[in-house]
Amino acid sequence: MSSSSGIGYKSQLGDAQAQKKESRLGNRAARATTGPERGPQVFWCPDLVSTRDLGPAGVDAVLRLAGIMKARPADFRSTLSGRQMVMFFEKPSLRTRLTFEAGMVSLGGSAMFVDQTHEKIDAREKLADVAHNLERWVDLIVLRTFSQQTIEGMARHACVPVINALSDLEHPCQALADYLTLLERFGDVKDRSLAYVGDGNNVAHSLLLTAACLGSSIRIATPASYAPDPQIVADARAIAERTGAEIYLLNDPQEAVTGADAVYTDAWVSMGQENQADERARIFPPYQVNTELMAKAAPHAVFMHCLPAHRGVEVTDAVIDSAQSVIFEQAENRLHVQKAILYLLLGGSDRLPARSAHA
Questions:
Q1: Which label site among 140, 175, 255, 336 has the fewest CB atoms less than 10 Å from its CB?
Q2: Measured between alpha carbons, how far is 144 from 164 in angstroms, rounded to an integer?
Q3: Helix, strand, or coil here: 145?
Q4: How far is Cα 180 from Cα 189, in angstroms, rounded to an integer?
Q5: Among all residues, which ones are annotated catalytic?
Q6: DSSP conformational letter for 73
């Protein structure tokens, strides 16, 4: 796992580089001589490289707007008209690719996909050169990569917004969709507890940070050698000091799940870790989410998984197919959360569209 450098990491851009990026954005807008005038960049966050870029106010803004967009999609059909998004994916994808493409098109923009599963994005040329080409052609870059450093590097060099669609360190869009699902189910998450059991991976990291931003309670139970990244934990706890969130790192899955409102798991072996599969298969079976473990959660508890799931491994069919499972609600909400992110990063308009009488 890669790690970042503290709560003020700013995707390792630094304040001066962030200001330079904002200046380049302004210069690019000033150079535009054709096409309709566009609304200003009203969102304070230039990229979504990490949930830490958003902070509590940004997480709240994304989730609130996602709820509005889900309820009133017709009001936003042309808000990103003429905008272009490119996606570079080093890993295979179903939900991430389709929800970004469908989301951008539903907002009036266009989406292009570049399959990078055969080689890394910077295999043929320097990442900075790729970034400086892309910023002259498109309005936004979406990356799904093996390394967080690739996403941070693209954000550092490109003057257009960059979105982390998954790296080895974080999966911010997934965690935002997960908490939108919990908000829909429970109405508020401040007094709710999510128990995550399994590998302390990128999904666990983003859940930690998002829970911290929302002032919620989260329990992470992992084998001792597979705990979350210490810097992510430190950053989440620093945020929690401001929001009142509760963070517990445990090794006992039963302790984590007892009384929880939501039980979450993910694959024990992530893409790129295939050489660890045998070792992990020996260590992780006590963390399988089955009917016995779910029985320890609150009676109203939901089961969550970011998918794809390895049925019979980290979760049993009896749980994932049960009435408690909200896995497809999570998948659907990827669409709405990512539409909100696209809208906010691209400054869709000066204000939200007025409510349509026909919505």
A1: 255
A2: 7
A3: coil
A4: 10
A5: 144, 171, 174, 266, 306, 334
A6: G
